[in-house]
């Protein structure tokens, strides 16, 4: 039994590196190939789903005409500003409530109550208050992203090992040092989880907001194309959202591996 | 030599009507190595935490001699309490950019035989190595008093023995006043100048240990102290 097992592991080792890099792309590539073949052979009517090549050509056309870059940048702008405002407020509230008991007693239960309202249910109210201009979309994204950052910052700070805080105090750290050397780094993994979650909320909120009430942005582009039964552009917008979501997730992940380097140091190289 | 460094007077400590310490009186001399032994719940850790100022007594007082400059106390805990996001060197200097601090930290790492590990993270070290880093960290600010709260409890027997020798050596060379809390009577008999048995919330028994003791003497002292803790009266039978 022992011998064949050891042989197969040594064999596999030789091929691990290229296979590991290639494997995640395998399913998307097969899906796109099947999709293209079905379209070319006429199994899939272009009124149901246009071929990948048609979508790609549409993308090139809209890029050259400047329409895609314009809408993409306005969507990115709304997403980023909304996240910065919402995430900033969420972090600040989470920080204050995590550090101060009085503040926690005063604010936390109200925030938790507000959190349970689905933020997309606020769309009618926000349109009535702010109209359909930029501030409406940005506030929706801000409200949506605020809570995941708040909750994770709050819990991250509350669950810092009290033994480490006691050590810091008995080793004469100042309050500022205690926060920057112990509390913040200890809470950081949890805070980053909140930010990553907020990125997902950010895109879904923006899609809905732009589809319902906008005159620009990727969501508007999709909605507009729907009115003209322009299937290529509708599918293109969906693909763009998928790519944007993936990119923001990659950015969040690289932040994690950069800031949490210490978590990846196993005992292997001891 | 015989000047009092720590003076404990009529200390009482209660937690929600539960008595942890009752009328403890104890004087500890400068440079003395004290071991507090006893069963769990006997009050030895509570007494150490009161001396360290981590908790306040319900009644009574702890006085630390402040005559020579600023008397500094450092605690070494049962768990290493190292910060996992800092390298070993930064755990000593708390990330200070000061060159002298870093150099001093490196010196102390050499002292605990971990000079090559400055850039490692705590997760890359063994349990014994982590406690050596914690010991080096305790020595960073040139303390006069070292409080050890069962720091070797989680280590295997061989590592434990090496750590005992290292701590003893450092305490003697730096003339530290040391208080060691331990449940291991033999450890106390090996290391301490004076063993204090904590039983029923007070210091019920004291034993002075002979200087330059050999293994046999350590065994005798340990057996006598153990008998005292466990209330076994015919001590001579144990030592025979």
Automatic annotation (TrEMBL), chain A:
Ranges of residues in domain ABC transmembrane type-1: 68-252
One Pfam family linked to the record: BPD_transp_1
GO CC terms: plasma membrane
Cell compartment(s), UniProt: Cell membrane
Alphabetic keyword roster: Cell membrane, Membrane, Transmembrane, Transmembrane helix, Transport
Membrane topology of the entry: Multi-pass membrane protein
Annotated PROSITE patterns: ABC_TM1
GO process annotations (BP): alkanesulfonate transmembrane transport
Transmembrane segments: 21-44, 76-96, 116-132, 138-157, 178-195, 234-252
InterPro entries documented for this protein: MetI-like, MetI-like_sf
Annotated family: Belongs to the binding-protein-dependent transport system permease family.
Name by which UniProt lists this protein: ABC transporter permease
Naturally occurring in which organism (per UniProt): Companilactobacillus nantensis DSM 16982
Upper lineage: Bacteria, Bacillati, Bacillota, Bacilli, Lactobacillales
UniProtKB/TrEMBL annotation, chain B:
Organism (species): Companilactobacillus nantensis DSM 16982
Name of the protein in question: ABC-type nitrate sulfonate bicarbonate transport system, ATPase component
Keywords noted in UniProt: ATP-binding, Nucleotide-binding, Transport
CDD domains cross-referenced by the UniProt entry: ABC_NrtD_SsuB_transporters
Organismal lineage: Bacteria, Bacillati, Bacillota, Bacilli, Lactobacillales
GO MF annotations in UniProt: ATP binding; ATP hydrolysis activity
InterPro entries (UniProt xref): AAA+_ATPase, ABC_SmlMolc_Importer, ABC_transporter-like_ATP-bd, ABC_transporter-like_CS, P-loop_NTPase
Pfam family, one: ABC_tran
Record domain ABC transporter: where: 6-225
């Amino acid at each position: 039994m022992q011998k064949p097992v050891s042989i197969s592991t040594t064999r596999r080792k030789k091929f691990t590196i290229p296979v590991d890099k290639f494997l995640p792309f395998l399913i998307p590539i097969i899906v796109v190939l099947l999709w293209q073949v079905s379209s070319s052979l006429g199994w899939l009517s272009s009124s149901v789903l246009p071929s990948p090549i048609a979508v790609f050509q549409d993308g090139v056309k809209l890029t050259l005409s400047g329409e895609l870059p314009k809408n993409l940048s306005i969507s990115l702008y709304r997403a980023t500003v909304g996240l910065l405002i919402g995430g900033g407020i969420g972090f600040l509230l989470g920080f204050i409530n995590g550090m101060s008991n009085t503040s926690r007693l005063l604010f936390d239960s109200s925030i938790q109550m507000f959190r349970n309202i689905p933020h997309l249910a606020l769309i009618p109210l926000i349109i009535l208050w702010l109209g359909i201009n930029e501030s409406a979309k940005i506030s929706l994204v801000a409200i949506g992203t605020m809570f995941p950052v708040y909750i994770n910052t709050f819990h991250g700070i509350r669950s810092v090992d009290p033994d480490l805080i006691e050590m810091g105090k008995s080793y004469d750290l100042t309050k500022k040092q205690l926060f920057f050397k112990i509390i913040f780094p200890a809470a950081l993994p949890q805070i980053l989880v909140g930010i990553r979650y907020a990125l997902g909320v950010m895109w879904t909120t923006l899609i809905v907001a732009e589809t319902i009430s906008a005159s620009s942005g990727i969501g508007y582009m999709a909605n507009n194309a729907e009115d003209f039964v322009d299937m290529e552009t509708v599918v293109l917008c969906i693909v763009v959202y998928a790519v944007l979501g993936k990119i923001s997730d990659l950015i969040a992940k690289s932040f994690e591996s950069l800031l949490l380097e210490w978590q990846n140091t196993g005992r292997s190289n001891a | 030599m015989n000047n009092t460094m720590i003076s404990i007077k009529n200390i009482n400590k209660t937690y929600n009507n539960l008595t942890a310490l009752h009328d403890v009186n104890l004087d500890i001399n400068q440079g003395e190595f004290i071991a507090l032994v006893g069963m769990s719940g006997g009050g030895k850790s509570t007494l150490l935490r009161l001396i360290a100022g981590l908790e306040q007594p319900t009644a009574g007082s702890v006085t630390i001699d402040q005559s020579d400059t600023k008397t500094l106390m450092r605690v070494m805990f049962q768990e290493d309490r190292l910060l996992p996001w800092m390298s070993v060197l930064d755990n000593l200097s708390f990330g200070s950019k000061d060159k002298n601090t870093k150099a001093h930290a490196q010196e102390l790492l050499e002292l605990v035989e971990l000079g090559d590990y400055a850039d490692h993270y705590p997760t890359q070290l063994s349990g014994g190595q982590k406690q050596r880093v914690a010991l080096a960290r305790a020595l960073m600010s040139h303390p006069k008093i070292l409080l050890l709260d069962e720091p070797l409890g989680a280590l295997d027997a061989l590592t434990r023995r090496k750590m005992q020798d290292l701590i003893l050596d450092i305490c003697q060379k730096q003339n530290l006043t040391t208080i060691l809390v331990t449940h291991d009577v033999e450890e106390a008999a090996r290391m301490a100048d004076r063993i204090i048995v904590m039983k029923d919330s007070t210091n019920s028994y004291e034993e002075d240990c002979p200087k330059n003791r050999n293994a046999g003497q350590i065994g005798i002292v340990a057996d006598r102290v153990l008998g005292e803790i466990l209330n076994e009266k015919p001590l001579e039978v144990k030592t025979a």
